[in-house]
Amino acid sequence: MPKLAILSNVTIDMVSMSLKKEYEVYQPSGFDAWQQEVLDSQSGLYCFKPEAVYILLYADEYNEKTGQMVLWEESIRQISVNLPQIPIFVSSIYIKEQSVRSYGEIGDADKKKGEWMDTLRRLRQEGMEVYLLPVEETAACIGYNHFYSNKMWYVGNMPFSIVGIKAIVELIKESYHSIKGMRKKCMAVDLDGTLWGGVIGEDGVDGIILSSHKEGQRFKDVQKLLLDMKNHGVILAVLSKNNQEDVEEVFEMHPHMLLKKEDFIVRPRACFHCEVFRVPKNETLKTNKPPAMQVSQHCFSLQ
């Protein structure tokens, strides 16, 4: 089983327990004992020889006044020295602000979060294997009141709710799969209802739904996401039963098409870098894998 070390300044027993179903997990014993482990070159952390280290951090305005971020940075540097070439995933932080504040008072939590991000960037620029684990960003998407729990904090010094714990576990799994090359390598997409709304064969180029406002924006955002995936090394392919002439016209003529023919790497036909299939789409990659794709079937992700 893969070996992960989970370090934190709060209680994370439930995170570790969830991960132990798929990973061998090391967690320092004792509350907020991770920095002592880091400083001891003979500690259980280094004897464990993890394949990846995860550091989950939590802060509030009162604690941050003690300068704990400086200590966190020193600890990360020490791990990098004692475990060279081992990826270190460090969480972004959510700084809980004072509950009582007048409208005239402006907190500096955002400033502190920015400083922490700058610290991680600097460590990365210095050549350390430091990566961001976007915990705070995930909490913002889910909702802070759902991601964090005052009850869990007061009962067991664990700030995360059950929802938050599940989200953190998924973040850890996804990040580990990413660095180990276990992520999906190809995204094969349909055209109608995916890259644009409507049916190109019936609605024509001017009739499909694709724009920078209202429902058309939804399909444009899908294209933005696919472009981001391509720029991060994911291969794009098209699975469609449309007439190829209609498809080419959309790519060449529609003003809101962000994706271009050249963004699709599959080249079974010289005139277009995608394949228009005449068999059920879910069977295509199993039985008629495009000849230009010299990759195994497990790498495909279908929409």
Description:
Strand 9, helix 13 (244-253) and strand 10 form a beta-alpha-beta unit. It is built from 14 helices and eleven strands. Strands 2-1-3-5-7 form a five-stranded parallel sheet, sandwiched between helices. The protein has a four-stranded parallel sheet with strand order 10-9-8-11. A two-stranded parallel sheet has the order 4-6. The chain has 303 residues and is of the alpha/beta class.
Task: Summarize, please.
The chain is of the alpha/beta class.
Strand content: 5-15%
Show unreliable segments: 267-274, 290-303
Oligomer: single chain
Q: Give the count of helical stretches.
A: 14
Give the overall silhouette. elongated
Rounded mean pLDDT is 84
Order of helices and strands: EHEHHEEHHEEHEHHHHEHHEHEHE
Estimate percent helicity.
40-55%
| Tally of DSSP β-strands | 11
Rounded Rg: 24 Å
Q: Characterize the main sheet.
A: 5 strands, parallel
Distance between the termini: 31 Å
Helix/sheet category: alpha/beta
Placed side by side, the strands forming the largest sheet appear as 2-1-3-5-7
Key traits:
four-stranded parallel β-sheet; 303 residues; alpha/beta; five-stranded parallel β-sheet
Blueprint of the fold:
Layout: E1 3-8, H1 13-19, E2 24-26, H2 34-39, H3 44-48, E3 52-56, E4 59-60, H4 61-64, H5 68-82, E5 88-91, E6 95-96, H6 109-125, E7 130-133, H7 135-142, H8 144-147, H9 150-156, H10 162-179, E8 186-189, H11 200-203, H12 214-231, E9 235-240, H13 244-253, E10 275-276, H14 281-287, E11 300-302
Parallel strand pairs: 1-2, 1-3, 3-5, 4-6, 5-7, 8-9, 8-11, 9-10
Helix pairs in contact: 1-10, 7-10
